[in-house]
Amino acid sequence: LANLKKCLRTCIFCRKKHEQKELIRLKCEDKKLVPYNNDGRSFYICYECKEIIESNTSQKVYRRIERSLMKECKNNDKYVVQLKEILTDGR
Ligand SMILES: [Zn+2]
Fold it and tell me: What residues does the ion ligand 1 have nearby, CB within 5 Å?
């Protein structure tokens, strides 16, 4: 039965489940946001949220993103800025 299930992961922002290939995998290393490098704990962001992060700059959205990232990284830093840089580099 387990084989019939697709490997679903939850986006940390919208909490929707997606297939792993439809997600961007990131991690927090030395209090810095980096693309996942097969080591340690990771988290996922879907492409829908990527679009939102890249295009939307409203305070409400920004704070929500920031809060999710702080929760994953366990501390407070300029994670939204770092995230935007990673997403832009990935093009
Ligand atoms: Zn999402």
Answer: 11, 13-14, 46, 49
Nearest to 82 by CA among 71, 67, 66: 66
CA of 12 to the centre of ligand 1 (A): 7
Cα dist from 65 to 2, 7, 35, 37, 47, whole Å: 32, 24, 17, 22, 14
For ligand 1, the distance from its centroid to the CA atom of residue 46, given in whole angstroms, is 4
pTM of the model: 0.83
> 39 CA to middle of ligand 1, Å?
23
pLDDT (tens digit per residue) in 46-79: 999 999 988 877 899 889 999 999 999 988 788 9
